[in-house]
Design goal:
Elements: H1 15-19, H2 26-49, H3 65-91, H4 97-117
Helix pairs in contact: 3-4
């Protein structure tokens, strides 16, 4: 059939019937609205209870004061190690044994902090550069 050709069986149709072809039934709209509302309700409920869509805990518990003190101490050591690497790089190339040793110390401190205190936020930007 060519575009623009009129099908003979459609010529005698009531034109008011064609007005309703593109309409979606009110029931279908209500079901869609209900589905959207249920999804929004579930998302809000998950935010309030601290669980994700799979039901597992999404929020971590707050760090203890001991964890915060340990994180602060480790962050200070990481900052000092970064400063030492920077100072050594002013004197030597990155291939110098002292630079390599300082970088290894820095990586070890960063790994220790990640393993022991991964959930505690870094203090004073000590984790802004995680690798060199």
């Amino acid at each position: 059939m060519l575009f623009g050709a009129v099908r003979p069986d459609l010529v005698d149709l009531d034109p008011t019937l064609l007005d309703h072809v593109d309409e979606v039934s009110p029931v279908a709209l209500s079901e869609q609205d209900l589905a959207v509302e249920k999804r929004q309700r579930d998302e809000l409920r998950a935010k309030i209870t601290g669980t994700d869509s799979r039901g597992s805990a999404a929020l971590q518990s707050l760090p203890t004061s001991q964890e915060i003190q340990t994180a602060t101490a480790l962050d200070a050591r990481i900052r000092d190690a970064k400063r030492q690497v920077d100072d050594l790089l002013l004197k030597f190339t990155e291939h110098h044994p002292d630079v390599k040793a300082a970088e290894e110390t820095l990586r070890a401190l960063q790994k220790q902090r990640e393993v022991e205190l991964g959930t505690v936020r870094a203090t004073n930007g000590s984790q802004s550069e995680t690798s060199r």
